[in-house]
Amino acid sequence: MTSSERSPSPPSSSGLLIVFEGVDGSGKSTQIRRLSGRLDKRSLPHLFTKEPGGTPLGIRLREILLDPALAASPLAQLFLFLSDRTQHREEVLRPALDRGLIVLSDRLSEATMAYQAFGAGLSRELVATLNKVALDGLRPDLTILLDLPVEALEERLSARAEGRTRFEGLGRDYFERVRRGYLDIARVHTDRTLLLDATLSPDLLEERIAEELLRRFPGRFGP
Ligand code: TYD
């Protein structure tokens, strides 16, 4: 066991960890890109990263996870996502936060709770425990949840062939459960979650996110 595993680190040390969550097609990538553009304009040092696939190991794991031919079972998938997360925390998240960067992550542990526990039916206690092990005390300063009703998700995904196949493979009920899971988690962690209606226009969502960051972290995002 390494020393960092023995003594969990504080929430996010000197940096700021902002996580974007939501079902597939909820517009996370667009909002991350827009926020990153705003931070660039103000020369605020930041890093964009994602799960699965934020490290070289994670890129391989992502290929495995998203390959329908491999059909990993829910529990096997859970371990792959956790493996990705552990490496991501060790190699990318913790070092960037220790350097004081603002880290924008496309998904983190709440995705596993929503998809593998609420969606695929694995034990919530098990997922919570293993998420804690993978994150070793790290937790987001703010999670931005882009909430999308399943009808809108179906409409958006049908525009992409890959998305359509995925939606049909997993089924409407699965995505209903994932969405409900995300909303449940948001209710428990209202203090560090910004819940947004993903059907609002991208401009409006961008404004809401910028306002919230300024309100919560005036020292970082203020004039
Ligand atoms: P993502 O890269 O966000 O998908 P996309 O780029 O297509 O929007 O995530 C890939 C898929 O992995 C997505 O369907 C959500 C799923 N996922 C889980 O099931 N559990 C997890 O812990 C994570 C991080 C993602």
Explain how this protein is built.
This protein is α/β, with parallel strands linked by helices and 223 residues long. The protein has a single domain (4-218), classed as Rossmann fold, CATH 3.40.50.300. The chain contains 11 helices and 5 strands; from the N terminus they run αβαβααβααβαααβαα. The protein has helices at residues 3-6, 28-41, 56-65, 74-98, 109-119, 124-135, 150-158, 161-170, 172-188, 202-216, 218-221; strands spanning 16-21, 46-50, 102-106, 142-147, 193-197. A 5-stranded parallel beta sheet has the order 2-3-1-4-5, sandwiched between helices. The protein is globular and about 50 Å long. Residues 1-11 have low confidence and may be disordered. Residues 24, 51-52, 81, 106-107, 111-112, 115-116 line the site of thymidine-5'-diphosphate. Thymidine-5'-diphosphate (TYD) is lined by residues 24, 51-52, 81, 106-107, 111-112, 115-116.
Brief descriptors of the model:
223 residues, binds thymidine-5'-diphosphate, single chain, Rossmann fold
Question: What would a concise description of this structure say?
Answer:
With 223 residues, the chain is α/β, with parallel strands linked by helices. The protein has eleven helices and five strands.
